[in-house]
């Protein structure tokens, strides 16, 4: 199981520690470093900055929002950074949910998310292969555009720049069972939001037909500390925000996933509290047990024991979120 460093997206401003952490991770032998975006900083610019200060570590987006760019624009970002980094780029994509897609990006959330995702990946693959002009008469993506509000004179094109790699890895952040199953068919890897090594049945059916070499790279908060309860508080804060605030009360993919993992009543309670403006109560309502099983928190010996559970399953890469230098070093030693 390889280790990766997941830096996420910025808060009010750039995190002054991110570059140093990425450089340290490369020195410690970490395989990859990942950036993200929501409705603030973008994923590609910080990754390019990190690429300029490193030489070996692979570079991934976890996740770049599909609604933020057309698939050809996303492919341009990926192939450009792949050239600049000497072939280290991995493209992780996410569809997000209706509140973010329509509220921030000003686009309609697709009526058929699976079809929209499949078309998006198809276009990116065509750009990277560069076998001919990009052509797709899709439901959500058309190249050339054929909508009634168009001119009708769009021209099929292929990229001027020759991509460095036709097989640049494309990974998807999928949460629903059908979406995960499709991911195993159309992508090179999957980026789970929550992964519990003690609940393999949650994803068993969706992962029944895994192709050889398929990447499964969940993110997990890791923290070497003496007080487990205190170390879990940032995990609970993240869960409270995602489950309570990252979606509508009637359509929240994160809450639905928590429910499928055995915490349905707790997920709905977190939503109720968060949407009522009682955010601190929502965070405290997150069960310690759930926060604990999807993270690696506690003394070194406890983390070493729990790390074995992650190694026994199909996980190929563990992406460590919100780390500190000491935790990064400990995990590198334990995984070495």
What does this structure look like?
This protein folds into two domains: 2-222 and 299-335, Alpha-Beta Barrel (TIM Barrel), CATH 3.20.20; 226-295. The protein is built from twelve helices and 13 strands. The protein has helices spanning 18-28, 44-52, 71-84, 98-103, 113-129, 177-186, 228-245, 253-275, 279-284, 288-293, 300-312, 325-335; strands at 2-8, 32-35, 58-61, 64-65, 89-94, 136-137, 142-143, 170-173, 189-190, 215-216, 219-224, 296-298, 317-321. Strands 1, 2, 3, 4, 5, 8, 9, 10, 11, 12 and 13 form an eleven-stranded parallel β-sheet that branches. The protein has a two-stranded antiparallel ribbon with strand order 6-7. The longest helix has 23 residues, at 253-275. One of its GO terms (molecular function) is oxidoreductase activity, acting on paired donors, with incorporation or reduction of molecular oxygen. Keywords: Oxidoreductase.
Q: What name does the CATH topology of the largest domain carry?
A: TIM Barrel
Q: Note the gap between the termini.
A: 10 Å
Task: Note the run of SSEs as H and E.
Answer: EHEHEEHEHHEEEHEEEHHHHEHEH
The overall strand count is 13
Rough shape? globular
GO molecular function: oxidoreductase activity, acting on paired donors, with incorporation or reduction of molecular oxygen
Protein name: LLM class F420-dependent oxidoreductase
Domain Luciferase-like: 17-315
Pfam family, one: Bac_luciferase
